[in-house]
Amino acid sequence: MRGTRPLSNGELRIIADCFDGEFAIRDKSLILIGVSTGGRISELLALTLGDVYQNDKPVETLHFNKDVVKGKENSRTVPVNSDGVKAISDLIHWHVEYYGNIDPQRPCFPSRQKRKGEQVSITRQRAHQVFKDVCEKAGLNGNLATHSLRKSYAQRLYVILSDVFSVKEMLGHQDVKTTQAYLGVDVEKVRKASEAMTIGNQ
């Protein structure tokens, strides 16, 4: 979504503490896996338990199949950091408690609703509402939407690597110019620089 802003690590920590209710683990895991892998919301919602949990443990690299990525041209594989691995582990435990088993074909982020008797994932609209609600509960402002998760991943990865080509590959962009435009301004860096310019710091 054009114009959405990324989240800082501090904001992500605040958000992580704001989930509650019956689907808290499901929703928190969606957010944490999103900021840990940079997946588009449609790619995340297409994930099944078999995609994230193999050989009785969470995957350390996540594969987005080309039939779910934008343009359906290239699949991609992304490393999953420890936050993402823990989120997958928590999600698996939630599925066991909620459903009583682990079905590799079940969506990672299941809806209360079924379609033709089949378990389906929550919709993009529902995911957006979940994210909007938790941001409001966390007291965050600015243009925030589920695409902020992908931008947060991209921005944080670029700050660490300073390598736009690696970020391009992890995001699955076709052109590095898209990635460059996507990264935009490092808001936290500008915030610190702006604060350093205040009269009180002169």
Can you describe this structure in just a few lines?
With 202 residues, the chain is mainly alpha-helical.
Q: Could you give the topology of this structure?
A:
Elements: H1 9-16, H2 24-37, H3 41-45, H4 49-52, E1 53-54, E2 57-58, E3 61-64, E4 76-79, H5 82-99, E5 110-115, E6 118-121, H6 124-137, H7 147-161, H8 164-171, H9 176-183, H10 187-196
Antiparallel strand pairs: 1-2, 3-4, 5-6
Low-confidence stretches: none
What is Rg?
A: 18 Å
Number of domains: 1
Q: Biggest β-sheet: count, sense, barrel?
A: 2 strands, antiparallel
Beta fraction: 5-15%
Q: Distance between the terminal alpha carbons, to the nearest Å?
A: 39 Å
At the first level of CATH, the class is Mainly Alpha
Going by CATH, the architecture would be Orthogonal Bundle
Specify the helix fraction band. Answer: 40-55%
Q: Biggest sheet, strands in spatial order?
A: 1-2
Keywords:
two-stranded antiparallel ribbon, 6 strands, mainly alpha, hpI Integrase, Chain A, 202 residues, 51% helix, two-stranded antiparallel sheet
Written description of the protein model:
This protein is mostly helical. The protein has a single domain, classed as Orthogonal Bundle (hpI Integrase, Chain A), CATH 1.10.443.10. It contains 10 helices and 6 strands; from the N terminus they run H-H-H-H-E-E-E-E-H-E-E-H-H-H-H-H. The protein has helices spanning 9-16, 24-37, 41-45, 49-52, 82-99, 124-137, 147-161, 164-171, 176-183, 187-196, and strands at residues 53-54, 57-58, 61-64, 76-79, 110-115, 118-121. Strand 5 (110-115) and strand 6 (118-121) form a beta hairpin. Helix 2 packs across helix 7 (147-161), helix 7 runs antiparallel to helix 8 and helix 8 crosses helix 9 (176-183).
